[in-house]
Amino acid sequence: MEHAYVHLLDLLAGHPAWTLLVVFLAAFLEAIAVIGTFVPGSTAMFLAGALVGTGSLNLGWVFAWAIVGAIVGDGISYWLRSRYKKKIVTVWPFRRHPRTLDAGRSFFEKHGAKSVVLARFIGPLRAIVPVVAGMLGMTPMRFYVMNILSALLWAPAHILPGVIFGASVQVAGVVSFRLVVIIALLVGIAWLCIRVTRFALSHASAWVNDAGLSLTIWAGLHDGWAGRVIIRVLNPDRPVAGPVVAASLTVLLSCWLFFGILQDVISGDPLVVVDRSVYHFLQSVRTPWGDSTMAGLATLGSVITLLALVITATPWMVWERRWRTLGYWLAAIVFSQLLTVTLQFAIHRAPPETLNWGAYAFPSNHVAAVVTIYGFITFLLARRVGTLAGVFVVSTSTVAVACVALAGLYFGRFWFSDAVGGAALALVWVSVVAFAAVLRKPVVPPSRGFMPAVILTVVCVSVAVQFDVGAPTMKSDSALNEGRLIATTSQWTNTLWQSLPCYRSDMEGDRKEPLAIQWSASIDEIEASLRTQGWVNGAKFSARSFASLASPKASAMTLPALPVLNNGVPSSLVLIHPGKTDRERDVLRLWPTGYAIEKPGAGPASAERLWIGSLVHERLYRISWPINMLRDGFKKT
């Protein structure tokens, strides 16, 4: 996999003109009326930025082509209205979806000329507002000023996050390619959750209206009690109609998903094979840093965090006098846990990790609890904030739940189908509670714009407290010596040194730089000895070392040195020494072995840990401003 990844980067670096052409076309087509609805230009800009971060593209050229493409695309949309005038309303999709133009017209009338800038960042309106600007008589001079300004803001906003991601991947690849996979997984989950949320919310109104119309037609043809209830509930004059239809559809889809997964789990259908594939893949990319990252993400769904959210939401509901809503929610949490535990004991499905002996996994009661609590709080917040804040709330909650589920899969606490089944079952409870709450009080509650910040603060504080309590501690030198094999100096110099590995091995099994150093001493003695020769600690991360990654005048000595892995073990000591120029340096890394060498005539009590190490020469190069990277080569010793 790593070789394919490196080959892809080399291929892209060898054909920058074609890649830049894609950047131009993506920015251009996304801004074209009609076509822009189907072109993921923002995603293309992010990927282009990622290529900049890995050194495959030049940032200046990416900016230039993206900005030009965006300006020309909006200009073409503006010209279309001037050229075809009133005929534009007869063109698909405006002919079939006239509300699209109406939304653009309302947005333009509300925000005026600055709507050209704002719409650039709003997917459904990006390609519509330039057309509306021409329809409503905006002068070309004023339009192109706003058009150029919007492109200058839009391109960096979408490209720079990709640059940061690409640089992170590049750095992670130096440590271990498995970290690249973990970073890609996390970013992919966040991106997918945000895109799905935006897509669902942007189409939710149309889906709810179509479903409501279909149900109303059916109810009109049936005179029974069901028809009368549906007509009463879906009365368009009542504000409860939309939320009730949305909750009902969620219940139906969640039940369908849960029972489908339940059938597959019981019958052992191909979904079980997918479970094993997901589990084995995540186990194959595990690293010590990945474990720390996933453990941190798991705190988003820990008992402490969930309890903090419940404690925060309870007085909020009491303050608003939503007694029954609060009672329904607390009851849903209790009964959903009782139901999932009952199903677990009925199905008797063991989790992946054998350490969880005696536990059952389907459906995951942990994921169910997370979805029930986060889902209800999301429902409360979304009804009390504006549209944009609602998108942020739903997206953030979805990402948090997905990260908790991924952490559980990563550590083998449950299978993939267990997580999906638990989430589907919990969504039923959340939808029922939302249905009951809206049905009782259909009037939209007062705005609570400050509550998302309060909830986010509670989550962050809870996670920070758990990070502080559960922070891993470095092993002392004496702890490293536990379980060691003691050898004499003569045994070491005669035979033992030959049995130690000659090359550093990454977790993928590839041979890296030579392990040309063997040293028997305490880690403090080694560091003190090398400091007298001009070596300094290179693994200390500080604000200055991070700032140097983007400094145009950074020297090699100011950049942090990475503690790379040897057979999955991070280096215990990293020291750096200045090279011949300020763009060069030497890096010494040491790893512990399973041996300790006793001093001549002093006995086993004098044995000191035996270390193996590598010495590499690194040279600073700037792949593309503002990213500074170090390329290493093997140091001859």
TrEMBL record:
Taxonomy, superkingdom: Bacteria
TM segment ranges: 17-39, 59-80, 143-165, 171-194, 240-262, 294-319, 326-347, 359-381, 388-413, 419-438, 450-467
Domain VTT: 39-162
Subcellular location: Cell membrane
CDD domains tied to this protein: PAP2_like_2
Residue span, LssY-like C-terminal domain: 497-621
Membrane topology listed for this record: Multi-pass membrane protein
Cross-referenced PANTHER family: INNER MEMBRANE PROTEIN DEDA-RELATED, INNER MEMBRANE PROTEIN YABI
Family: Belongs to the DedA family.
Name of the protein: DedA family protein
Organism taxonomic ancestry: Bacteria, Pseudomonadati, Pseudomonadota, Betaproteobacteria, Burkholderiales
